[in-house]
Fold this protein.
Amino acid sequence: MRDWLAIRAQATPARTALVHASSGEATSYGTLDDEVERLAGRLAGFGVDVDDHLGVVAKTRPAFVRLAHAASRLGAVLVPLNARLTARELTTALDTADVDTLVCTAATEATAAEAFDGPLATLDPPTAGARRVSSIHPEPFELGSWTRDCTAVLLATSGTTGGPKLVRLTMGNLAASAAASSWRLGVLPDDCWYCTLPMYHMGGLAPVYRSVLYGTGVAVSEGGFDPAESLAEIERNGMTTTSLVPTMCRELLDADDAGVLATLRFVLVGGAPTPDSLVERARAAGVALYPSYGMTETSSQIATASPDQTRDALGTVGSPLMFTQVRIVDADGVP
Amino acid sequence: MRDWLAIRAQATPARTALVHASSGEATSYGTLDDEVERLAGRLAGFGVDVDDHLGVVAKTRPAFVRLAHAASRLGAVLVPLNARLTARELTTALDTADVDTLVCTAATEATAAEAFDGPLATLDPPTAGARRVSSIHPEPFELGSWTRDCTAVLLATSGTTGGPKLVRLTMGNLAASAAASSWRLGVLPDDCWYCTLPMYHMGGLAPVYRSVLYGTGVAVSEGGFDPAESLAEIERNGMTTTSLVPTMCRELLDADDAGVLATLRFVLVGGAPTPDSLVERARAAGVALYPSYGMTETSSQIATASPDQTRDALGTVGSPLMFTQVRIVDADGVP
């Protein structure tokens, strides 16, 4: 089957796919499809082929979304890498994931150039010898195709327990997670998900794939997290949903005099335990907070609590999503 | 994996699963799960086993929903049969689908008894020798399990083109259709789908399976379609969505002085072409009408138009759902 974006663009070409949160500029699925086709051609021109491992060492930005879809279009495997790694750590991560080609940015180019001997391209003006992606001439390429068992993403765990482990996520894993999440949180045709979490972690990457399946939009922030700026972006662009880690959520609540968060259909929080005080504060502010538990290995959330559930049982992350089973064990693996 | 209802009941036991539309009585997923467990035991006591073909010849009613889930729980295949068939037609349909055990109702028992030599049970007080389901002592049974490729339903096409054909629908088919539909129409945690279409056709059966995946409710009408009664049921029970054939939709609009249909999040119409006049009338009445095209072979809708799309192009059924491809051919199969 064709890549998800191609199918989506054929189904609903006029719907909003991607919003640059800072400028408010919106791109339709039809236009995004064209942009990704061109980007995939450039990557092909740079040597990326079917089944290649395409590393991306970048903070969250709109181009990250295009790179993820371009990898799918080429039938390549996306390998998002933490933009905060040192050169030594990055070398290990690149070796572990067997990365063939690496894409970096202005902020990561120096580290990437030090860590990687293979073909290196950058989204920004080069400073350390990388090839600028936009300067590569697009080449024709074989269309990638996929089945449920194809590897879509190789992603290091966020390292909550022990050292980071590399996790293989198939197209089927991502699709099942997208379905289960939509059946817990709901999905509406006009939804637009505000993305400010790092896309090199599962929590930040999940909306990129889900939105294409849902036919909804993602609004992508860039330049790092700033509470006042995020609130302005959410308000200006008419966002409906977002996902955050608890700390960011608290900082947003601190800055949210205008009640912007309360206009969202849901605020999904995860990546760390959600403090009871945050749940209570969100409730008082009229914010639809959904504490969740998830892991990279499960393509993000596998249990999520609604505001009703946290009202009944503070501290809960709710029940497991559809088709997931949770067994709670002690340190020795005993239930 | 356990049957869908078991998984759903574990995830969200307190949510509303089934509403008796005439009385307004609501059953939670936890309670429905218990009822289905008992019903599955009765069917086991009547001889229904894994992989058996369980025929159901009944009009739409709440017990139809329980029978569908009880079949899944036993690992049996559900074979819904048109309640309007003559004994001769029913015999052919039962033979074609290789039905092992048949469940009927007061209205279909005489025909069923004439058409079927195998074990016959009825949901109502017996009149022609069938065994009443509620009188069967529940027996222990092996839990059914399923994979995507397991057959869930054998269903005759509605016969739009040529004679009826028997269609095999797998669990994977039903799940994929549920996902694609939810990503077009949206799904909200508090949705409740008003069911008045015959459940022996795909259009009427689809919400039974989808709602369990979504964790939402179905409100099931019984006793046949009556416009005034349907409007009262929709209003009384706070329904949010429904599916209809165009004729029923027109009759409801005729009777809808109070604007009840306009309170629904969507009214999905299909099973026959939606006349332009109906689209325009619904729009004038503020009804969110979604004309669709589908077929039994695709587990119902595969293309669906939003009110925005029909405003731009009257007569459209919109674009194909996610992961479906449509090729339009002439009578000779030429695109």
Summary: The first helix of chain A runs from residue 4 to 11. Chain A touches chain B at residues 1, 7-8, 10-12, 175, 179, 182-189, 191, 213-215, 306, 319-323 (CB under 8 Å). Chain A is about 35% helix and 20% strand.
